[in-house]
Amino acid sequence: MLGAVLAGAGLILCFYIGVLVLADLYLIAIHLRGSHRRPLREPAEHSQIDAIRGKEPVVCVQLPIFNEAKIVGAAIDSLCALDWPRDRLEIMVLDDSTDETSSIVAQKVEEWRHKGFAISHVVRPNRDSFKAGALAAGQQQSEAQYFAIFDADYRPLPSFLRQTMAALLADPGLAFVQARLGYRNRERNALTRAQAMELDTLMGFEQAARNWAGMPMPFNGTCGVWRREAIEQAGGWRGDSVAEDQDLSFRSFALGWRCRLLLDVSAAGELPDNFEALALQRQRWSTGTAQVFRKLPWTLLHSMRWPQATAFTFLTLFYSSAAVVLVAILAIAAVCWLVAPEWALIVALGWVATVALLVVLRTIGAALAARQLGRPINLAFVGDVVAQWLMQLVLLPTAGKALIAGYLVRAIPFARTPKKGH
Q1: For the chain, what is the mean pLDDT?
Q2: Of 33 and 383, which is predicted with more confidence?
Q3: Which of 24, 95, 96, 384 is catalytic?
Q4: Is 99 an annotated catalytic residue?
Q5: Measured between alpha carbons, how far is 36 from 393 in angstroms, rounded to an integer?
Q6: 96 among known catalytic residues
Q7: Burial category of 34 from C-beta neighbours within 10 Å (exposed 0-12, middle 13-18, buried 19 and up)
Q8: Phi, psi of 71 (to 5 degrees)
Q9: What is the pLDDT of residue 414?
Q10: Are 167 and 44 in contact (CB under 8 A)?
Q11: Which of 24, 151, 200, 245 is catalytic?
């Protein structure tokens, strides 16, 4: 009897994940229908870029950092190379560091000030609210109506602001414009290639389809430009989660703001090249996802048609529960093996079928993303897809534990992903 009850619970959980994964079918359909139009492949019309020449608004570029001595100098140099009128450009280094990073920043800031740049070194007395608190503190010290945000490991091309601001200024309903995340060290080892494949799929498949369908797509925390009005209307940056980017995005969408993804505009960052750093990063991401889900403004569903609203709900539920549920199904199978071995195989087969459905649909998404980004689909692609799934399987217990922590623990420190400056 106990075995039958456990098996039933396991199969119900398998069915739950299977239903949520079907949202990918909607994304695949949207991608197949919309990709030939290539709206995301055009960063901005040349006429729009030309139209703002001589009329550029003030843009504040924010660089939040914490103990990043190896990479902060190059980060500041790349921001000072942005193609934007010098009298219309503010650069803020939001420094919460407790090591030698602050002295490096002070020296760099002074160097660029002597060259005529409006660059400031903002130091807070404490790390209240972590990255969100730093961004909010910087915003209070600027009157700019637009804020470009970069993590320290990303290096935008000089044309970044020209392209993103042209798109943002052309549509007053946009809260932010998000550029694609690139990676300087994607070929460093099998782990970085697997991550690059996973994140290319996220942006080139899922987020691209979301954007085409008019479905909320969260800000990725870097390589984007926000409109001040949207930030303020949504209640500003808040530090009650470690996923401040998702939190602010969804609060702004609930007020009717929209966003745009530009796949042809990118900035190259750095991927964790060892499993310890990767696990730390994914732990933060999973915890933040749970925290944001806990306070998600579900009223934003009212602004979407039922297909978009259903797909958004399924995707949100998947990311906020999948790791825990998949680990729970395996735990149920293990208990069944002890008390009723005949049921254990049924639960295990249900888990395998569920994961197989997920793998098939997401692999199709990976192929669509590769086509969208102009990457070859060959044996190397297949190898990277396999490596990606192995990586996610190994990370499953870490992600599950972090999701539970995000639901149960109110205050969790922001753990920065270590970067080596490759």
Answers
A1: 91
A2: 383
A3: 96
A4: no
A5: 33
A6: yes
A7: middle
A8: -125, -10
A9: 65
A10: yes
A11: 245
How many CB atoms within 10 Å of residue 11? 20
pLDDT exceeds cutoff 60 at 155: yes
C-alpha to C-alpha distance for 193 and 277, rounded to whole angstroms: 15
Q: Is pLDDT at 362 greater than 70 in this prediction?
A: yes
CB–CB of 362/201 below 8 Å? yes
385 Cβ contact list (under 8 Å, min separation 6): 197, 363, 366
Residue 53, classed as helix, strand or coil, is coil
Reading the block at residue 60, the tokens are: 């504040």
DSSP string, 80-138: HT-SS-GGGEEEEEEE--SSTHHHHHHHHHHHHHHTT-EEEEEE-SS-TTHHHHHHHHH
Give the helix ranges, DSSP H, for 274-376.
Answer: 275-294, 306-339, 341-373
Amino acid (one-letter) located at 401 = K
Which amino acid appears at position 125 of this protein? P
User: Is the pLDDT score of 308 beyond 50?
Assistant: yes
pLDDT in tens, 191-217: 999 999 999 999 999 999 999 998 999
Instruction: Give percent of the chain with pLDDT exceeding 90.
Output: 76
Strands 89-95 and 118-123: parallel
What is residue 266's predicted lDDT score, i.e. its pLDDT?
93
